[in-house]
# Entry
Amino acid sequence: MTSAKLPAAELADLKRQDIAHHLPGQTDYRLRDTLGGSRIITHAEGCTIHDAEGNAILDGMAGLWCVNAGYGRAELADAAHAQMLQLPYYNTFFKTASAPAVRLATAVAERLGNGLTHVFFNSSGSEANDTVLRLVRHYWAVRGQPYRNVIIGRWNGYHGSTVAGASLGGMRAMHEQGNLPIPGIEHIMQPYHFGDGFGEDPVAFGARAAAALEERILKVGPHNVAAFIGEPVQGAGGVIIPPAGYWTAIEAICRKYGILLVSDEVICGFGRLGRWFGFQHFGIRPDIVSMAKGLSSGYLPISATAVSSSIVETLRDGGEFVHGYTYSGHPTAAAVALKNIEIITREKLVERTAGDTAPYLSRALDRLRSHPLVGEARSLGLIGGVEIVSRPGSNERFAGKEGTAGPMVRDICIRRGLMVRAIRDTIVFCPPLIITHAEIDRLVDTIGAALDEAAPALQALPAAG
Ligand code: PXG
# Structure
């Protein structure tokens, strides 16, 4: 597919309407309006998105960490089309279900293994985690321990934007808007070695970060704690890959106090870390797993909350679980997700990530590791981050302030035809799992070129203090 530049008048009209009527999420509206409206993305294929100005951009973010199977999959469109003609919608509340929902639950459970037998459907990652909160509190009430309702998450974890999702997450900026978190949610330190443990032995730092969970459990009172929730690798927090031993230590602490372990696989699921699910990479067995994004490669909104068979046994004793959404198990979304899983399986995208593209990406990042502005370049599977620093060998930031260099380098990357995100001063990427070696080279070398281009302006900034 070639460029499909929109006629100038049509584009100007779209941008005018965008400013006049549209409030996109996670957006500074004054800034969007000052920039003359949003960039209009018109079409995409493979790993490339196209905008209305005629730019072709390598999508280093797989949309928003989700288009694992890549763009332009006619099979997914065909699955939606066929299902819409047969049964576009029906609910799961009247002791009814649709074939795609039931088959999808089975396909997900088969890939989860580890006793995670049952799946509850929702439409977004946030909703999947709302279900986690409702479910674990209900679970402990049915078990006769209704006081066990505290859920522990981590600072800078991301679990969504609904009231429960943003509360479970540890994004201070989100908490500040809307008087969050809601009661009964605690946060502990994150295992961010580069940021919070610089110079410390990584394994010792990981053990210290995990020990923070036990300390908090003891402070809250073990009998009050319902669950711990974490992302195997924090995505929106800045691609934070925990040190070796962290997750096994967290799991052991949860077991010691009989606390449910929840793995938020909204980003890490469906091949991202080179396994179907991130917890499988870290060798742990969560009791609950939330997932979204890669479940349908973002083609339609659908998410799931998977639980272990022993949780299901308790739920069976609990009467009606008075929770569910109109679109739980949406037949069309489920049909598309099922076809997406079939594609990932058939094309061996999980195996390809583990055995080919992930090691290739990791080796390519070596080219950035010696750059004077790079403090660390890390990846696991096909997710990674590059830390921009003001002094080689340090974790010091330009102008002594986080968030100065990152957006500058990101904007240059986009101008040079690569979509990446800046999370403070970390450039992060999470490309479709179909990415080729040549595209990985382009991703890494564009970041390198953007760093070179930004260097004079960054070095001219006033020093810290
Ligand atoms: N959990 C995780 C781990 C996520 O990354 C959600 C839950 C919520 O999913 P929904 O579908 O409700 O958005 C996410 C979503 C960012 C950014 O700034 C990341 C997400 C969403 C919006 C922005 O990188 N991840």
